[in-house]
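Re: the request from the purification team.
They wanted to know what the chain is likely to look like in 3D before they choose a buffer screen. I agreed to run a prediction and write the result into the notebook, where they can find it.
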Amino acid sequence: MLLKHLLLAAALLAAGTPAAWAPAARADETRALLVAVNATRTRTGLDMLRDNPQLRQAAADLAADLPRCGRLSHQGCDGSDLRERLVRAGYAFAFAAENLAHGTPNAAETLAAWLESPGHRENLLRPELREAGIAQGELQGQTLWVMVLGSRR
């Protein structure tokens, strides 16, 4: 399944994807990243993360916000932190974490970068986290990835 998503996204991007297809290509890439993260979690004996629309919204909000202030940060342009963004998205959480990546062009490279970073890897493999939302944006001409992980109260 992961290979199918990665091949589809690569084919769309290599074919000079029309701008109208960009949201579909991004959705395919974010799904591919969740599939890849879940494959990693499964290999380590953890439960898979479920896609959550509220977490996806929190991720999308930060992915849209950071280009406005021109920086890669876990703090939004308005000074918001993850906790505030989760409250705005209506997600009542017990545990939460956030991973960012910038400049990795696809799901496979994003996951590889996160797995090489101790803090990002720890977030991906925390057993108490049960759900996730992923969004993409563009920051300074490169792909921006935001993954918000959580578990409800």
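For the purification team: The mean pLDDT is 86.
Please add any questions underneath this entry.
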